[in-house]
Amino acid sequence: MQINLNSKWKSILSDEMQKTYFLYLMESLESEYQENKCFPPMDLIFSAFNHCDFSNLKLVIIGQDPYHGEGEANGLCFSVNDGVKIPPSLRNIFREINEDLDSIFLPTSGNLEPWAKQGVLLLNASLSVRKDTPNSHKHLKWNLFTDAVIQKISDENKGVVFLLWGAFAHKKGSKIDRNKHLVLESGHPSPMSANQGKWFGNKHFSKANEYLKKQGKTEISWF
Residue 151 and residue 78: Cα distance in Å, rounded? Predict the structure, then answer.
């Protein structure tokens, strides 16, 4: 399988990508895409990295796996292609941005590429999924690769903000060095969690920008 990953990230992750599990993952993935309808398109699997320069990495958001509906996933967690109806979790994210930043943000697209280009790594734990079957590629051991990515960022960067939403993301970020980075945790933005009072009011977007400003970094324009 051809890996569509930019040269900088490929260099940073080269040791990980030579490991037996990763080589097997790539072989298994090729078979999965040949035998089943899978998302995102194969050339977009590593889009989160290709849109976010490692040297400009400011913030990491961790999701679980890509949207599994036709034409939705674009390789960035919580993000959908232009023209696709904004999913409920993302609607709640936008609502919290409005409340947190006292703004009137009425997005017409759920494509989060503008965030990624500012240094936000929108990383799913699994980078692929079978159509209409959530978490269907968990067995491919994507988690080993994405755990290694998180560890690499934690070890080799300083002053990165990690937004961990929901128990799954909390566990995923358990080994982040909190002396070097800001880790913000809350409930998941999905309607079930948000409606139980675990999401709204977390003010993660303003807190992240306050921290970045103190680090001498450019704040994220969330809208």
Answer: 22
